[in-house]
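Our platform keeps sequence and structure together, in a single record for each protein. This encoding replaces a full spatial description with a residue-level series of whole-number codes. We quote a single record here, exactly as it is kept in our systems:
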Amino acid sequence: MNAPDSESAVSDEKRRPMIEADHLSKFYGIFAATRDVKFSVYEEEVVAFLGPNGAGKSTTMKMLTGYLAPSEGSARIAGFDMSTHRIEGSKRLGYLPENGPLYPDMTPHSSLDFFAEARGLSRQRKRQRIEAVVELCDLSSVIYKPINKLSKGYRQRVGMAQALLHEPDVLILDEPTGGLDPNQIRGVRETIKRLGEQKTILLSTHILQEVEAMADRVVLINEGRLVYDGDLAGMDKGGQGLDNAFAEMTRPS
């Protein structure tokens, strides 16, 4: 793994880590989905989480959110260990899985209302937050349309709105632009860039152009192990292009 330079290390010491993977490993029998993965994401930082299919990205993200228990190591959100203080950590976390939990017969409004109730928001707070996320995610034109009638781009926006509903400090987004057309990708990208001005974001993607457009830093895993943690310039030191650098770093062992 590439070590951070001294300047960035000093900068990180001054910022609060909001997402911490501390030597995370997940074993299924003798198979290691991840092994000894360690990195942190700091306040108001957008970090791209990269790796080929099967590298362990989704497993790592599920451990960070408390959805999966690690076999070894610990995951912390805003300082809360997600194995022992999951409820407290979840209050600070918004999670958008690759296939978000949407109820197709609901409308975006009824879905947001349901999740706001589940989060325990007061009536006034619920109304304020629904209005805010509908505007942020540009859902006003489809707010009363059944979710099963929406395009995939709008369904992604509904999932994003649900993740943002309780105004979390931390967002973990698993392939938020997967399967979207270029116009839809642009809309999601602009939303994430705005959110990154105030929130801590860990973003899993296969699209390296997305990394260049949105991320402050890259964390790359391959075959369940961390192989790079640094900026884009450091990833492409040879000037060969990100695609070639990615391919070189993720060659099968």
Q: What stands out?
A: Confidence is low (pLDDT under 50) at residues 3-10. The two ends are 15 Å apart (CA to CA). The first helix runs from residue 6 to 14. The beta strands are 17-28, 31-42, 46-50, 72-77, 80-81, 93-96, 170-174, 200-204, 217-222, 225-230.
